[in-house]
Write a structure and sequence with these properties.
The protein has 155 residues and is mostly helical. Helix content is 57%, strand content 0%. The protein is built from 4 helices and no strands. The model has no long low-confidence stretch (mean pLDDT 78). InterPro entries: Tom22. Belongs to the Tom22 family. One of its GO terms (cellular component) is mitochondrial outer membrane.
């Protein structure tokens, strides 16, 4: 835990401020305007501070007291609301992705297979038509085939 100790300035501990003319401590006289600089005072050494006994969590816990409780409460509420919104959004998007992908597999795969089969049939008909046209061009004077006879009306 962090311990606070009050360090008094040497100047103030040796000389107590005396009230001036009218019992006012902060009255400014022309004589008292000299700035006081304490060049002999010692800056606290790092040896005085005991950091070995503190962990990072102890230091962070001590920082908690800097923020007022109302600000901590509002920050906590904001973080919990954002966390809740994020969780619900991710949950909804995961469920929606599952529904869309499942529907695509159940409806899309059979449709794609049927479409590919239909394209094969169309391609086969084109090939047969091309073969038939090539045969007619190679043998122009031949007798009509049985299929052609059946399709011609009789007189």
């Amino acid at each position: 835990m962090v311990k606070l100790t009050e360090v008094e300035d040497e100047h103030f501990s040796q000389e107590k401020p005396q009230p001036s003319k009218h019992n006012v401590l902060l009255a400014s006289d022309d004589e008292e305007e000299d700035d006081y600089t304490d060049t002999e005072s010692e800056i606290s050494n790092e040896d005085d501070v005991e950091l070995d006994g503190e962990s990072l969590s102890d230091r962070l816990a001590a920082l908690k007291d800097i923020i007022p409780p109302s600000a901590r409460r509002s920050f906590n509420n904001t973080v919990s609301n954002v966390t809740s919104f994020t969780k619900s959004g991710l949950s909804f998007s995961g469920k929606a992705l599952w529904v869309i992908s499942t529907s695509a597999f159940l409806l899309g795969v059979p449709w794609a297979l049927a479409y590919a089969e239909e394209e094969q049939y169309i391609q086969m008909e084109r090939e047969q038509g091309m073969i038939k046209g090539a045969n007619e061009m190679l043998t122009p004077g031949t007798a009509p085939t049985e299929e052609q006879k059946a399709s011609q009306p009789s007189l």
